[in-house]
Design brief:
3-stranded antiparallel β-sheet, 6-stranded mixed β-sheet, Dna Topoisomerase Vi A Subunit, Chain: A, domain 2, alpha/beta, 49% helix
Length: 334
């Protein structure tokens, strides 16, 4: 399963990607396929096994640090080069895990359909502007399903007696996060008391940690780039008067995501130049080698100094690295 998810996650992605972003893409591919791929040790080790297999065959190249340590430490990152043109050099049965010629043919046809869908998606994005696959198809009037890419939430103090509000209260009482599909958000838009602080984060590990610590403050997660359910939930909470905060990765995609979430009513939270520089100092003190991001930093209108600081250092700080500080600050000021 891990091999199929990695191939799905990289089929139309960039030639270079951080291990952190690849993990997010694998989780997204798993969610789209109705599968579970967690941050647990077993799934991390399975991913490392697949990546090392692909490295050995020239499909993946480790540009900055190796992936092996990720199996034991989910904070490990690396910069990878993906060579999808080398997939044809792999033996077909190991690649697809086929047990028969018929299964091999079925899977080959499935890959062709996936390639066609990716080509159409790229054409729609070129025509209509940047966005996720789901956004591209929905803008073209061809919405995807409303249940396969839910938004992950924790501790939302929802008002009312709708099934969504009742489920949120029950799951919080049980110490568990709650997934809300786009269908659920549309059927019963989440409402909170005006002024309620809600933290929107990029990585599900922060929501998991908040539930483990029973943090008494609401959160939801975009799980990388926001798809249908998460922006709809954010808009509904904004209409209800929630104080929306956003925190994400200190890298070029993360800063761009923060700007997009600001457009939905979120205020960037602990995402200033001072926060970035403090994270760099902390990593240096801990002897952590941060991955380098050579992309152009987007504008950070909420703090222009952040883009300048990032351009000067070019070191990516992923959200898990500052997780404790972010969660503590949210809980203290919620």
């Amino acid at each position: 399963m891990a091999l199929a998810l990695v191939l799905a996650a990289t089929a139309s992605g960039p030639d270079r990607i951080s291990l952190h972003d690849l993990v997010l893409a694998v989780r997204s591919a798993a969610a789209d396929a109705g599968l579970s791929f967690s941050a647990g040790t077993a799934d991390r080790r399975a991913l490392v096994t697949v990546l090392r297999w692909l490295v050995a065959r020239g499909v993946v190249r480790e540009l900055d640090r190796a992936v092996a340590s990720y199996g034991a430490d989910d904070g490990v990152d690396a910069l990878l080069e993906i060579r999808n043109d080398r997939l044809t050099m792999l033996a077909a049965p190991p690649l697809v895990g086929a047990d028969s010629a018929r299964e091999l043919q079925d899977r080959r046809e499935g890959r062709e359909r996936t390639a066609q869908r990716c080509a159409v998606t790229r054409a729609l994005i070129e025509r209509d502007g940047p966005g996720t696959e789901r956004q591209a198809w929905e803008r073209a009037g061809m919405p995807l399903d409303l249940v396969s890419a839910p938004v992950l939430t924790w501790g939302l103090p929802l008002l009312g007696d709708s099934p969504v509000a009742v489920a949120a209260r029950a799951m919080t009482a049980a110490g568990l996060p709650l997934h809300l599909s786009a269908a659920a958000v549309r059927r019963a838009p989440p409402r909170v008391a005006p002024g309620t602080a809600v933290l929107v984060v990029e990585n599900p590990r922060l929501v998991e940690a908040a539930a483990e610590r029973n943090i008494p403050a609401g959160m939801l997660c975009t799980n990388g780039n926001a798809t249908t359910a998460s922006p709809e939930a954010v808009r509904a909470l904004h209409r209800a008067g929630a104080r929306l905060r956003y925190h994400g990765d200190f890298d070029c995609p993360g800063l761009a995501m923060a700007a997009r979430m600001a457009g939905l009513g979120c205020v960037p939270f602990r995402m200033t130049a001072a926060d970035y520089l403090a994270a760099l100092a902390s990593a240096a003190a801990d002897g952590v080698a941060l991955p380098r991001d050579r992309s152009g930093a987007p504008d950070t209108g909420w703090d222009p100094g952040l883009a300048a600081a990032f351009t000067a250092h070019r070191l990516a700080v992923h959200e898990e690295r500052v997780m404790d500080e972010v969660l503590d600050a949210h809980a203290a000021t919620g």
